Amino acid sequence: MPQSREALRALGWDARFDEILASEAPGLVPGRILTEERGQYLVATATGDGPASPSGRMRHDVELDADATWPAVGDWVALEPIALEAIAEAGGSTPDAGRPGTSPEPHRLIQRVLSRRTAVIRRAPGDRKLPSQVLAANVDTVFVVTSMNADFNVRRLERYMTVAWESGASPVVLLSKADLASEPERFVAEAGAAAPGVDIVPVSTVTGEGIDAVRSHLGAGRTVVFTGSSGVGKSSIVNALAGAPLLETASIREDDARGRHTTTRRQLVRLGGALLIDTPGLRELGVMDGDGIAAAFDDIEGLTAECRFSDCQHRSEPGCAIRAAIAQGTLDRGRLEAWQKLEREAERAAMATNGLARRAERKRWSVIQRSVDVHMRMKYGAER
Ligand SMILES: Nc1nc2c(ncn2[C@@H]2O[C@H](COP(=O)(O)OP(=O)(O)OP(=O)(O)O)[C@@H](O)[C@H]2O)c(=O)[nH]1
Ligand SMILES: [Mg+2]
Ligand SMILES: [Zn+2]
Q1: What spacing in Å lies between the alpha carbon of 34 and ligand 1's midpoint?
Q2: Closest-lying ligand to the alpha carbon of 175?
Q3: Is the CB of 236 under 6 A from ligand 1?
Q4: Which phi and psi angles does 231 have, rounded to 5°?
Q5: Model confidence over 4-19: pLDDT tens digits?
Q6: Rounded to whole angstroms, how far apart are CA atoms 9 and 29?
Q7: CA distance linking residue 109 with residue 124, whole number of Å
Q8: DSSP 3-state assignment of 29?
Q9: Mean pLDDT of 162-190
C-alpha cells in the first residue's frame, strides 16, 4: 500500500530497510521504537503508535544468540502481524496503553530487531548486566552538545566524539549557552582542536543563535540524536526547535554548573517530518573497540603512520613523529594522553569480548593504509 509506505518513510524507513526486512523477517510488519522503559516499548507503525513487548521467541533468542539484541530507541523492529490485526479489530491504535489500571489489550509482539544502519553505543564496564548499551539506533546525525560555561571539558568532548564517530553517523558539535560566554571564540577554538574536521555550532536557546543551523540538519525522514552531559541543554534545544515546551528541562546546580539528570529516558519525538532522539546525560561513557578512536583522533593516528617504526610506542624510539609534533608544539600533550587513555580502554573492551586478535589486525591494516596515504601524498602532492 503506497499510503502505508509514506507513513513508514515519515518514520525514517527507506529502501535499504526493505531489503533488510525481506532477508531478516519476511512477512513481518516493521515498526520503530519511540521509547523504552523497563522492557516496555512504545512503537510507531504505519497504522499508529502503541505499546509493544518482546515475544517469547525473541527473549529466547537474546538469551542464547550473541548476535540477537534487545530493541533500542530508534530501532526498526519486526512485529507479529496477527497481534496487529487484533489491534485493528479492537479499534485501531491503543491510546490508553501504559496507563495503570487499564484492562489488558491486544499487544504488539516484537519478533526481532532489524539490522542497524548506525548505532550510538556506550560501554559501561561497571555494569555487569549491561556492559554495552545502545543509546540510539539508525540515526543520521549525532549532535554532541557541550555548554560554554564552567562545565566545558575538552577531554569529555573527545570521549563523546569517539562514541559519535563509532556510531557510523555524522557528528556535529553544538556549543550550547552561547549567551553566557564572554569569549565564545575561545570555546570554538578549543572544541575545534578536540573535534578536528567537525562542524562546531554555537547555539543559544535564549537568543536563538544557531537554532537555524541545527534545523538545517533536520529533514523529512532524517533522524538526529542529542547527546552530552546532564544540564548542557539538550532538551532545551529540542524545545527551541519545536517552538514549544515539548520536553521537560530544569536548572543546573550553581556550584559546578552540572545538570540534575532531568531527562530520565531516551525518547524519539517527531517534529515536522524530522525525527529527534533526546537522551539523558550520562555519568559514565565508555568507548567501544572500533573505528571511533581512529576517526576522532585522525590527526594523531595520521602522525603515527609517519613514525619510522610501524610498532613505535612514541616513547624513545628514533624518528617518532608524535614526539616531534609535541616538541614543535603542533600536538597538545593533553590530547595525546587522552588518545592513549582511550586506546587502553578500547583494548580492555576488546579483551572483554575476546577481540584482541581482531583489534591487532585492524590496527595493523590501519597503519598500512595510512602509510600508503603518506607515501602517495609525498609522491603526488596533497590534492590526490
Ligand atoms: N543561559 C542559557 N541557559 C540554557 C540554554 N539552554 C538551556 N539552558 C538551561 O540549562 C538548564 C538545563 O537544560 P536542559 O535542557 O534540561 O539540559 P539537558 O541537557 O536536557 O539535561 P539532562 O536532561 O539532565 O541530561 C535549564 O535551566 C535550561 O533553561 C541556553 O542556551 N542559555
Ligand atoms: Mg534533558
Ligand atoms: Zn612514534
Answers
A1: 22
A2: 1
A3: yes
A4: 90, -5
A5: 889 999 999 999 999 9
A6: 14
A7: 29
A8: strand
A9: 96
What are the pLDDT digits (tens) for 47-98? 999 999 999 989 998 888 777 789 999 999 999 877 666 666 766 555 444 4
**Residue 261 CB less than 6 A away from ligand 1:** yes
Looking at all shown ligands, the one closest to residue 281's CA atom is 1
Q: 266 in ligand 1 pocket by Cβ < 6 Å?
A: no
Residue found under cell 587513555: 341
If you write DSSP's letter for every residue of 326-381 in order, what string do you get?
A: HHHTSS-HHHHHHHHHHHHHHHHHHHHTT-HHHHHHHHHHHHHHHHHHHHHHHHH-
Confirm whether 214 is domain-assigned. yes
Q: How far is the CA of 81 from the centre of ligand 1 (A)?
A: 41
Q: Is 257 in the pocket of ligand 1 (CB under 6 A)?
A: no
Tell me, in angstroms, the distance from the centre of ligand 3 to residue 303's CA.
Answer: 8
- 249 and 128 in one domain? yes
What is the rounded average pLDDT of the residues 235-245?
95
Do 240 and 269 share a structural domain?
Answer: yes
Q: Which atom of ligand 1 is nearest to the CA of 145?
A: 19
Query: Which of 113, 146, 168 is at the close of a domain?
Result: 113
Q: 3-class SS at 294?
A: helix
For residues 255 and 174, membership in a common domain is answered with yes
Calculate how far, in angstroms, residue 281's C-alpha sits from the geometric centre of ligand 2: 7
Ligand nearest to C-alpha 331: 3
Q: Are residues 126 and 262 in the same domain?
A: yes
Domain that holds residue 30: 2-113
The residue among 211, 226, 202, 68 whose CA lies nearest residue 141 is 226
326-345 pLDDT tens trace: 999 999 999 999 999 999 99
